[in-house]
Amino acid sequence: MELDEMKQAWQQLDQRLAQQHALNLRIFRDGHADRLRHGMRSLVWGQSVQIAFGLALLLWGVSFWASHLGIWQAMACGIAMQAFGTLAIIFPARVLSLLREIDYAAPVLEIQRRLARLRAWRVKVEAPVFAVLGSVIWIPAMLMLIQYAADRAGVRVWGRMPGVLPWLSLSAAVSLALVALAYVLLRRLGRRRWLEDNFAGRAVRNAEAMLDEIARFERGE
Q1: Domain total of the chain
Q2: pLDDT, tens digit, for every residue of 28-58?
Q3: Calpha distance 116→122 (Å, rounded)
Q4: Angstrom distance (rounded) from CA 84 to CA 140
Q5: What domain range includes position 68?
């Protein structure tokens, strides 16, 4: 075999190997893209349930303050519940919007960038807001239930609780302090990454791991 024929044979072999690698990469990526979409379904369902829950809280708050217009304390509790329910709709709606922006056929780096935006929203915005509000929302909820009991009994509950405002302030302060203490302790114990991963959610963590696997495969590692 002459030298030119050998060069041509090697070039053809290189082309076939490149084609085979491209085919394997396409098959590998398609399979993982399907797994990515399937893995995100749990997050979609979870956010949808949260929207329904938020809507229920919003309607509860509206119906409560609308039926207690003459009692400003009860109205304040209902409005607080309405505001919390509204946020419980807005935040998961934002997550679903970020999920819709992910194109699973895009380059891995672009998908990772979109996923990083989703993680940042859940870790840096959603988690702190709900950690703070979730630690105190039980107070108006409990007072609303007490008001319902007072309505059935036909008594005025607020006039009989002169120390309720100091108690509410103390309860809110203790709840917020416990949240802050838990966060500080976890950071001191080196569990910040674990905490952020839990805030991001299992679906996001699994997607990040699969994208890293695809990236390694593309690099031939």
Answers
A1: 1
A2: 455 556 677 777 888 899 999 999 999 999 9
A3: 10
A4: 11
A5: 3-218
